[in-house]
Amino acid sequence: MKVAAILLDTGRELLYRKTIIVYFGVVTLVLLFFVLALQTDVANGVIASLTVAGLEGSASQGGFRLGDGAEGPGMGGLTAEMFVRYVQLGMAFFLYPLAILMSVFATASLVPRMLEKGTIDLMLSKPITRPALFLSRYAGGALTAALNLLYLTLGLAVILAWKTGVWNGGFVLSGLVMSFFFACLLAFTVLAGVLLRSTTVSIMITAVLFVASLLVRMPHSNRDWPLLITSRASRFLAQAVVETLYYALPRSYELVQSTVALIRHEGSVEWGAIFGSAASGALALALAVVYFSRKDY
Fold this sequence. Notes:
Layout lengths: L1 H15 L2 H19 E6 L2 E7 L2 E6 L2 E4 L13 H28 L2 H5 L4 H6 L5 H35 L4 H28 L2 H17 L1 H5 L10 H17 L3 H13 L6 H24 L3
Antiparallel strand pairs: 1-2, 2-3, 3-4
Protein backbone atom coordinates (compact mmCIF):
# COMPACT_ATOMS: atom_id res chain seq x y z
CA MET A 1 0.00 0.00 0.00
CA LYS A 2 2.88 2.38 0.80
CA VAL A 3 4.49 1.73 -2.58
CA ALA A 4 1.13 2.21 -4.31
CA ALA A 5 0.74 5.55 -2.55
CA ILE A 6 4.16 6.68 -3.82
CA LEU A 7 3.24 5.57 -7.35
CA LEU A 8 -0.01 7.50 -7.14
CA ASP A 9 1.78 10.56 -5.81
CA THR A 10 4.30 10.33 -8.68
CA GLY A 11 1.47 10.25 -11.21
CA ARG A 12 -0.16 13.29 -9.61
CA GLU A 13 3.14 15.18 -9.71
CA LEU A 14 3.57 14.46 -13.43
CA LEU A 15 0.03 15.67 -14.05
CA TYR A 16 0.66 18.81 -12.02
CA ARG A 17 3.75 19.66 -14.07
CA LYS A 18 1.58 19.48 -17.23
CA THR A 19 4.27 17.83 -19.39
CA ILE A 20 2.55 14.46 -19.39
CA ILE A 21 -0.76 16.17 -20.20
CA VAL A 22 0.83 17.75 -23.28
CA TYR A 23 2.20 14.32 -24.21
CA PHE A 24 -1.27 12.78 -23.83
CA GLY A 25 -2.78 15.64 -25.85
CA VAL A 26 -0.35 15.18 -28.74
CA VAL A 27 -1.13 11.46 -28.91
CA THR A 28 -4.87 12.19 -28.80
CA LEU A 29 -4.57 14.69 -31.65
CA VAL A 30 -2.71 12.11 -33.75
CA LEU A 31 -5.45 9.54 -33.14
CA LEU A 32 -8.19 12.07 -33.90
CA PHE A 33 -6.44 12.93 -37.16
CA PHE A 34 -6.61 9.31 -38.30
CA VAL A 35 -10.24 9.00 -37.22
CA LEU A 36 -11.38 12.13 -39.06
CA ALA A 37 -8.96 12.50 -41.98
CA LEU A 38 -8.44 8.91 -43.15
CA GLN A 39 -11.09 7.55 -45.51
CA THR A 40 -10.68 4.17 -47.19
CA ASP A 41 -12.70 1.90 -49.45
CA VAL A 42 -11.61 -1.73 -49.14
CA ALA A 43 -12.83 -4.49 -51.47
CA ASN A 44 -11.70 -8.11 -51.00
CA GLY A 45 -8.70 -7.05 -48.93
CA VAL A 46 -7.50 -4.49 -51.50
CA ILE A 47 -7.55 -0.69 -51.13
CA ALA A 48 -9.90 0.52 -53.85
CA SER A 49 -9.68 4.20 -52.89
CA LEU A 50 -7.90 6.27 -50.27
CA THR A 51 -8.31 9.85 -49.06
CA VAL A 52 -6.32 11.56 -46.33
CA ALA A 53 -7.43 15.07 -45.33
CA GLY A 54 -8.89 15.59 -48.81
CA LEU A 55 -5.80 14.31 -50.66
CA GLU A 56 -6.41 11.39 -52.99
CA GLY A 57 -4.11 8.44 -52.61
CA SER A 58 -2.61 6.64 -55.60
CA ALA A 59 -0.10 3.92 -56.32
CA SER A 60 3.61 4.60 -56.00
CA GLN A 61 6.67 2.41 -56.30
CA GLY A 62 6.82 0.26 -53.19
CA GLY A 63 3.80 1.90 -51.56
CA PHE A 64 1.41 4.81 -52.08
CA ARG A 65 1.47 8.58 -52.38
CA LEU A 66 -0.96 11.37 -51.63
CA GLY A 67 -1.87 14.18 -54.00
CA ASP A 68 -0.21 14.81 -57.36
CA GLY A 69 2.94 13.15 -58.58
CA ALA A 70 1.96 9.48 -58.27
CA GLU A 71 3.07 7.05 -60.92
CA GLY A 72 -0.35 5.83 -61.88
CA PRO A 73 -4.08 6.13 -61.24
CA GLY A 74 -5.80 4.37 -58.40
CA MET A 75 -4.23 2.33 -55.65
CA GLY A 76 -2.64 -0.17 -58.02
CA GLY A 77 -3.84 -3.25 -56.14
CA LEU A 78 -2.30 -2.22 -52.80
CA THR A 79 -3.60 -4.64 -50.17
CA ALA A 80 -5.11 -3.34 -46.96
CA GLU A 81 -2.57 -5.37 -44.99
CA MET A 82 0.38 -3.69 -46.73
CA PHE A 83 -1.22 -0.27 -46.37
CA VAL A 84 -1.60 -0.76 -42.62
CA ARG A 85 2.03 -1.82 -42.30
CA TYR A 86 3.25 1.19 -44.33
CA VAL A 87 1.29 3.58 -42.11
CA GLN A 88 2.45 1.94 -38.90
CA LEU A 89 6.08 1.86 -40.00
CA GLY A 90 5.87 5.56 -40.86
CA MET A 91 4.32 6.34 -37.48
CA ALA A 92 6.97 4.24 -35.73
CA PHE A 93 9.86 6.10 -37.39
CA PHE A 94 8.28 9.50 -36.81
CA LEU A 95 6.39 9.19 -33.52
CA TYR A 96 8.50 6.74 -31.50
CA PRO A 97 11.53 9.09 -31.26
CA LEU A 98 9.17 11.96 -30.43
CA ALA A 99 7.41 9.84 -27.81
CA ILE A 100 10.71 8.83 -26.20
CA LEU A 101 11.88 12.46 -26.18
CA MET A 102 8.64 13.67 -24.59
CA SER A 103 8.80 10.84 -22.05
CA VAL A 104 12.32 11.94 -21.02
CA PHE A 105 11.18 15.56 -20.68
CA ALA A 106 8.14 14.47 -18.67
CA THR A 107 10.00 12.28 -16.18
CA ALA A 108 13.53 13.71 -15.89
CA SER A 109 12.51 16.01 -13.03
CA LEU A 110 11.21 13.22 -10.78
CA VAL A 111 14.46 12.60 -8.89
CA PRO A 112 15.94 16.15 -8.83
CA ARG A 113 12.60 17.49 -7.61
CA MET A 114 12.40 14.82 -4.92
CA LEU A 115 15.88 15.81 -3.68
CA GLU A 116 14.95 19.46 -3.17
CA LYS A 117 15.20 20.71 0.41
CA GLY A 118 11.89 20.23 2.15
CA THR A 119 10.61 17.66 -0.33
CA ILE A 120 13.29 15.10 0.52
CA ASP A 121 12.68 15.66 4.25
CA LEU A 122 9.01 14.91 3.77
CA MET A 123 9.72 11.85 1.61
CA LEU A 124 12.21 10.37 4.07
CA SER A 125 9.76 10.84 6.93
CA LYS A 126 7.38 8.34 5.34
CA PRO A 127 7.38 4.78 6.76
CA ILE A 128 9.08 3.29 3.70
CA THR A 129 12.66 2.24 3.02
CA ARG A 130 14.86 4.38 0.82
CA PRO A 131 15.24 1.73 -1.93
CA ALA A 132 11.46 1.24 -2.05
CA LEU A 133 10.93 5.03 -2.18
CA PHE A 134 13.40 5.51 -5.03
CA LEU A 135 12.18 2.51 -7.01
CA SER A 136 8.58 3.67 -6.59
CA ARG A 137 9.46 7.04 -8.13
CA TYR A 138 11.23 5.29 -10.99
CA ALA A 139 8.36 2.84 -11.54
CA GLY A 140 5.83 5.69 -11.52
CA GLY A 141 7.68 7.51 -14.30
CA ALA A 142 8.22 4.35 -16.37
CA LEU A 143 4.59 3.26 -15.99
CA THR A 144 3.22 6.70 -16.95
CA ALA A 145 5.32 6.82 -20.12
CA ALA A 146 4.44 3.22 -20.99
CA LEU A 147 0.71 3.93 -20.70
CA ASN A 148 1.04 6.83 -23.14
CA LEU A 149 3.03 4.70 -25.61
CA LEU A 150 0.46 1.91 -25.40
CA TYR A 151 -2.35 4.45 -25.78
CA LEU A 152 -0.71 5.53 -29.05
CA THR A 153 -0.04 2.07 -30.47
CA LEU A 154 -3.24 0.38 -29.36
CA GLY A 155 -5.35 3.38 -30.39
CA LEU A 156 -3.80 3.58 -33.85
CA ALA A 157 -4.03 -0.19 -34.35
CA VAL A 158 -7.76 -0.10 -33.48
CA ILE A 159 -8.44 2.88 -35.78
CA LEU A 160 -6.65 1.28 -38.73
CA ALA A 161 -8.48 -2.00 -38.10
CA TRP A 162 -11.76 -0.08 -38.16
CA LYS A 163 -10.84 1.76 -41.37
CA THR A 164 -9.34 -1.19 -43.27
CA GLY A 165 -10.48 -4.38 -41.55
CA VAL A 166 -6.85 -5.36 -40.85
CA TRP A 167 -5.56 -5.85 -37.31
CA ASN A 168 -1.79 -5.78 -36.85
CA GLY A 169 -0.96 -6.83 -33.32
CA GLY A 170 2.74 -6.49 -34.10
CA PHE A 171 2.36 -2.72 -33.88
CA VAL A 172 1.05 -2.99 -30.32
CA LEU A 173 3.92 -5.32 -29.44
CA SER A 174 6.35 -2.78 -30.89
CA GLY A 175 4.91 -0.27 -28.43
CA LEU A 176 5.75 -2.66 -25.60
CA VAL A 177 9.33 -2.90 -26.90
CA MET A 178 9.65 0.89 -26.98
CA SER A 179 8.17 1.10 -23.47
CA PHE A 180 10.83 -1.36 -22.34
CA PHE A 181 13.51 0.70 -24.08
CA PHE A 182 12.36 3.85 -22.32
CA ALA A 183 12.40 2.05 -18.96
CA CYS A 184 16.06 1.15 -19.59
CA LEU A 185 16.85 4.72 -20.64
CA LEU A 186 15.02 6.13 -17.61
CA ALA A 187 17.37 4.18 -15.34
CA PHE A 188 20.25 6.31 -16.64
CA THR A 189 18.14 9.46 -16.30
CA VAL A 190 17.44 8.83 -12.61
CA LEU A 191 21.10 7.90 -12.05
CA ALA A 192 22.15 11.26 -13.48
CA GLY A 193 19.41 12.93 -11.45
CA VAL A 194 20.47 11.49 -8.11
CA LEU A 195 24.16 12.23 -8.77
CA LEU A 196 23.81 15.76 -10.18
CA ARG A 197 20.37 16.90 -8.91
CA SER A 198 19.68 18.79 -12.15
CA THR A 199 16.77 18.13 -14.49
CA THR A 200 18.41 19.91 -17.41
CA VAL A 201 21.71 18.07 -17.06
CA SER A 202 19.86 14.74 -16.68
CA ILE A 203 18.06 15.35 -19.98
CA MET A 204 21.31 16.31 -21.71
CA ILE A 205 23.14 13.24 -20.41
CA THR A 206 20.29 10.95 -21.45
CA ALA A 207 20.34 12.44 -24.96
CA VAL A 208 24.12 11.98 -25.20
CA LEU A 209 23.87 8.36 -24.03
CA PHE A 210 21.10 7.67 -26.55
CA VAL A 211 23.20 9.04 -29.43
CA ALA A 212 26.28 7.21 -28.15
CA SER A 213 24.37 3.91 -28.06
CA LEU A 214 23.52 4.37 -31.75
CA LEU A 215 27.04 5.42 -32.79
CA VAL A 216 28.97 2.61 -31.09
CA ARG A 217 26.84 -0.01 -32.80
CA MET A 218 28.54 0.60 -36.17
CA PRO A 219 32.15 0.01 -35.05
CA HIS A 220 30.98 -2.88 -32.85
CA SER A 221 29.45 -4.65 -35.85
CA ASN A 222 32.48 -3.92 -38.06
CA ARG A 223 35.40 -5.93 -36.69
CA ASP A 224 37.93 -4.43 -39.15
CA TRP A 225 37.65 -0.80 -38.07
CA PRO A 226 40.51 -0.96 -35.48
CA LEU A 227 42.93 -1.61 -38.35
CA LEU A 228 42.55 2.08 -39.25
CA ILE A 229 44.42 2.97 -36.04
CA THR A 230 48.15 2.37 -36.37
CA SER A 231 49.15 2.70 -32.72
CA ARG A 232 48.60 -0.54 -30.82
CA ALA A 233 47.88 1.27 -27.54
CA SER A 234 45.40 3.67 -29.21
CA ARG A 235 43.75 0.77 -31.00
CA PHE A 236 43.29 -1.15 -27.76
CA LEU A 237 41.93 1.93 -25.97
CA ALA A 238 39.49 2.73 -28.79
CA GLN A 239 38.23 -0.86 -28.89
CA ALA A 240 37.82 -0.89 -25.12
CA VAL A 241 35.78 2.33 -25.16
CA VAL A 242 33.53 1.13 -28.00
CA GLU A 243 32.87 -2.30 -26.50
CA THR A 244 32.32 -0.90 -23.00
CA LEU A 245 29.78 1.63 -24.24
CA TYR A 246 28.06 -0.95 -26.43
CA TYR A 247 27.49 -3.38 -23.58
CA ALA A 248 26.93 -0.75 -20.88
CA LEU A 249 24.16 1.15 -22.70
CA PRO A 250 20.71 0.08 -23.96
CA ARG A 251 20.89 -1.43 -27.46
CA SER A 252 18.95 1.35 -29.20
CA TYR A 253 19.54 0.25 -32.80
CA GLU A 254 18.68 -3.41 -32.22
CA LEU A 255 15.51 -2.53 -30.32
CA VAL A 256 14.37 -0.24 -33.14
CA GLN A 257 15.05 -3.07 -35.60
CA SER A 258 12.92 -5.32 -33.39
CA THR A 259 9.97 -2.93 -33.63
CA VAL A 260 10.28 -2.95 -37.44
CA ALA A 261 10.38 -6.76 -37.49
CA LEU A 262 7.25 -6.95 -35.31
CA ILE A 263 5.31 -4.52 -37.50
CA ARG A 264 6.34 -6.28 -40.71
CA HIS A 265 5.90 -9.78 -39.24
CA GLU A 266 9.40 -10.55 -40.48
CA GLY A 267 11.27 -12.21 -37.64
CA SER A 268 10.99 -11.49 -33.93
CA VAL A 269 12.60 -9.33 -31.29
CA GLU A 270 16.35 -9.62 -30.78
CA TRP A 271 16.42 -11.25 -27.37
CA GLY A 272 20.14 -10.59 -26.97
CA ALA A 273 19.40 -6.86 -27.22
CA ILE A 274 16.47 -7.23 -24.80
CA PHE A 275 18.52 -8.99 -22.13
CA GLY A 276 21.57 -6.78 -22.70
CA SER A 277 19.50 -3.60 -22.39
CA ALA A 278 17.74 -4.96 -19.31
CA ALA A 279 21.10 -5.71 -17.69
CA SER A 280 22.51 -2.24 -18.44
CA GLY A 281 19.36 -0.52 -17.18
CA ALA A 282 19.27 -2.68 -14.04
CA LEU A 283 22.92 -1.84 -13.29
CA ALA A 284 22.32 1.91 -13.69
CA LEU A 285 19.21 1.70 -11.50
CA ALA A 286 21.06 -0.33 -8.85
CA LEU A 287 23.85 2.26 -8.71
CA ALA A 288 21.26 5.02 -8.31
CA VAL A 289 19.49 3.15 -5.50
CA VAL A 290 22.75 2.45 -3.65
CA TYR A 291 23.86 6.09 -3.88
CA PHE A 292 20.45 7.37 -2.76
CA SER A 293 20.33 4.91 0.15
CA ARG A 294 23.76 5.92 1.49
CA LYS A 295 23.65 9.67 0.86
CA ASP A 296 23.04 11.89 3.87
CA TYR A 297 20.32 14.40 2.96
